[in-house]
Amino acid sequence: MSGKYSFTQSLKEVRFLFCQRSEQSAATRSFLARAYPTMKRNNPQTPIMIREASGTEPRVFARYEYGKEKQEPLSGENLPARLSPFSISSHHIPGLSDKEIEEKVSGLVKSGI
Description:
The protein is α+β, with helices and mostly antiparallel strands. The protein has 2 helices and 4 strands. It has a 4-stranded mixed sheet, with helices on one face. About 25% of the residues are buried.
């Protein structure tokens, strides 16, 4: 697993944003509990930030040199445009599996802009 989390030199920061209680963020929380120590051990100089916000769709952001950013949703689907952020809790939107999250994060931290 350590090879999966060897970050590219151009990566300056990784941010995870998710809800601390929602079902759709459960896999993201589980993934971070398992993978964060390995990511940090292999990349001690790169900030890995974890942001929890109620009702937030799980996603990961990667910031590279010159302020360039990429992001990937970590939920099973994008929210329909008609849903407001305040109505998320009343709709079931499945999250990705642990393996799918790992693939998305690995893709972001290994590739550059």
